[in-house]
C-alpha cells in the first residue's frame, strides 16, 4: 500500500479548515480492501473520511486518513413498484439522488443537495424537508476494521433515530460502511407537508401534476436560499441538533414563547428549532475569529475564509452558553470533532 505523506485536507472538509494528514490514502478500488485493512492495522490512528461535510478536524491528523472514494451503483427490481438500489459508499450523495430520479426511482427527492457521501448518510440518518433516509434504507454493508469481518445490517439493526444510528455508538466505533442498499418506488408519491415545500413545488409545476423532479428542484431552491454553498463559504450544514425536550419542559417554554417553532414527536416529546433559539438569543452574525453564525440560517456556522479549529470551538462554546443562559437548553453539536 502506498500512502501519501503530509497531505492537506482543506479540500476534503467542507468547513475548509487547513489541516494535514500525516498519512493519506485515496480508496477507490474495493478489491484492495483487505490489504488496506491490514496496512491500516499497523497505524497508530486511522480515520475513514467520506465527504468531510460533517467533520471538524481539531488539529493536524497524526495518523492515516483513508478517503472513501469507491464508486458504483447497481439495481434490481423486486416487485411491481419496488427497486433495490445499491450504491458504493464513496458515491456523492446528491449525484446519487439525481441518478435515482433520472431512472424513475423515487423516495430520495426531498434529500437532494445534502452534502456528503452515500456511506455517510446512514451514520447520522440524514434528513430534510420531512423525510429521513432511514425510511428508504434496506440494508447497510460494511466491515468491522478490528475483526476485519464484513457485516450486513438491515434497517431495524441500524437503530435509526433523529440524526442517530448504531454507527454513532461505541459498539460500532470500528465499523466502516462500504455500500448502502435503498428500497425505492417506481411510482411517485409526493411528500410535501414540510414548511412551504408544497407551494414551491406547485409553482415549478405550472399547473401540471407535481413530479419528483419538481419536488427535488423545490428542495434545491429552498436549500440554496438558506444554506451556503460550501465551495463559497465553508460550513458543515446544521451545526447543532434540534433539541428534543420532554413535553413538560417544552410546555413551560412554549407558554413564554408561543411563536417558537416546535414539532411533536411520536414518543410525546417536543423538538424545538435550534436555529430559532440561536436567532432569538441575538446570535445571528455573531463571530469568533474567522467563524460566524450565518445570516440566512442561524443553525449554520460559516468559515469566513481563515477560520481555525480554535475559532470553531470558541463560537460553539459562545452559542451554547448564550442559548443556555436565555432558554436553559444546552445545544449539542451535530458534526464529528476529530482530535
Ligand atoms: N429558524 C429561525 N431562524 C433561523 C433558522 C431557523 O427562526 O435562523 C426557524 C425557521 O423559521 C423554521 C424553523 O426554525 O420555523 C426550522 O428551520 P428550517 O426549516 O430551516 O430547518 P432546521 O430545523 O433549522 C433542519 C435540519 C436541516 C434540514 C432542514 C430542513 C437539523 C439539525 N437540521 O434544520 O438539515 O435541511 O431541517 O428539513 O435537523 C443538516 O442536518 O445539516 C441540515 C441542513
Could you please describe the fold and organization of this structure?
This protein has 339 residues and is an alpha+beta fold. It is built from seven helices and 19 strands. A five-stranded antiparallel beta sheet has the order 6-7-12-10-11, with no helix packed on it. It is globular and about 60 Å long. It starts with a strand and ends with a strand. The structure holds uridine-diphosphate-2(N-acetylglucosaminyl) butyric acid (EPU).
Question: Sheet bearing the most strands, described?
Answer: 5 strands, antiparallel
Secondary-structure element string: EEHEEEEEHEEEEEHHEHEEHEEEHE
Return the average pLDDT rounded to an integer. Answer: 97
- Order of strands across the biggest sheet? 6-7-12-10-11
End-to-end distance = 25 Å
Which structural class fits the helix and strand makeup? alpha+beta
The tally of helices reads 7
Overall strand count:
19
Q: Ions, cofactors, ligands: which are bound?
A: uridine-diphosphate-2(N-acetylglucosaminyl) butyric acid
Rounded to an integer, what's the Rg over CA atoms? 20 Å
Low-confidence runs of at least 5 consecutive residues: none
Break the fold down into its secondary structure elements and pairings.
Blueprint: E1 4-8, E2 20-27, H1 33-41, E3 46-49, E4 55-57, E5 61-68, E6 73-79, E7 82-88, H2 93-102, E8 127-128, E9 131-132, E10 137-144, E11 150-154, E12 175-185, H3 197-205, H4 212-226, E13 244-245, H5 247-256, E14 262-264, E15 270-272, H6 274-280, E16 287-288, E17 291-293, E18 301-303, H7 309-327, E19 336-338
Parallel strand pairs: 2-5, 3-5, 4-19
Antiparallel strand pairs: 1-2, 6-7, 7-12, 8-9, 10-11, 10-12, 13-15, 14-15, 16-17, 17-18
Helix pairs in contact: 3-4
The chain binds uridine-diphosphate-2(N-acetylglucosaminyl) butyric acid.
Amino acid at each position: 500500500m502506498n500512502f501519501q505523506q503530509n497531505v492537506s485536507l482543506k479540500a476534503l472538509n467542507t468547513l475548509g479548515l487547513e489541516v494535514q494528514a500525516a498519512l493519506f490514502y485515496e480508496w477507490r478500488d474495493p478489491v484492495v480492501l483487505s490489504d488496506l485493512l491490514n496496512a491500516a492495522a499497523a497505524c497508530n490512528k486511522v480515520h475513514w473520511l467520506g465527504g468531510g461535510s460533517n467533520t471538524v478536524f481539531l488539529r493536524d491528523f497524526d495518523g492515516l486518513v483513508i478517503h472513501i472514494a469507491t464508486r458504483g451503483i447497481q439495481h434490481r427490481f423486486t416487485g411491481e413498484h419496488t427497486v433495490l438500489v445499491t450504491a458504493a459508499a464513496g458515491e456523492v450523495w446528491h449525484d446519487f439522488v439525481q441518478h435515482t430520479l433520472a431512472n424513475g426511482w423515487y423516495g430520495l427527492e426531498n434529500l437532494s443537495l445534502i452534502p456528503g457521501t452515500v456511506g455517510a448518510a446512514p451514520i447520522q440518518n440524514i434528513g430534510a424537508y420531512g423525510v429521513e433516509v432511514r425510511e428508504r434504507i434496506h440494508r447497510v454493508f460494511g466491515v468491522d476494521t478490528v475483526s476485519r469481518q464484513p457485516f450486513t445490517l438491515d434497517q431495524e439493526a441500524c437503530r435509526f433515530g433523529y440524526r442517530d444510528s448504531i454507527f454513532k455508538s461505541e459498539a460500532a466505533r470500528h465499523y466502516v460502511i462500504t455500500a448502502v442498499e435503498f428500497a425505492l418506488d417506481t411510482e411517485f408519491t409526493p411528500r410535501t407537508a414540510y414548511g412551504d415545500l408544497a407551494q414551491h413545488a406547485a409553482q415549478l409545476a405550472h399547473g401540471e401534476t407535481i413530479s419528483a423532479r419538481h419536488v427535488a428542484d423545490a428542495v434545491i431552491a429552498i436549500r440554496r436560499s438558506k444554506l451556503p454553498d460550501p465551495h463559497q463559504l465553508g460550513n458543515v450544514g446544521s451545526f447543532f441538533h434540534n433539541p428534543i425536550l420532554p413535553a413538560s419542559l417544552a410546555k413551560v417554554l412554549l407558554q413564554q414563547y408561543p411563536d417558537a417553532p416546535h414539532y411533536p414527536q411520536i414518543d410525546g416529546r417536543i423538538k424545538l428549532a435550534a436555529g430559532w433559539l440561536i436567532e432569538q438569543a441575538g446570535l445571528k452574525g455573531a463571530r469568533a475569529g474567522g467563524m460566524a453564525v450565518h445570516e440566512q440560517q442561524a443553525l449554520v456556522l460559516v468559515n469566513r475564509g481563515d477560520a481555525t479549529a480554535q475559532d470553531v470551538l470558541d463560537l460553539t462554546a459562545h452559542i451554547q452558553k448564550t442559548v443556555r443562559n436565555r432558554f436553559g437548553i444546552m445545544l449539542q453539536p451535530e458534526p464529528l470533532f476529530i482530535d
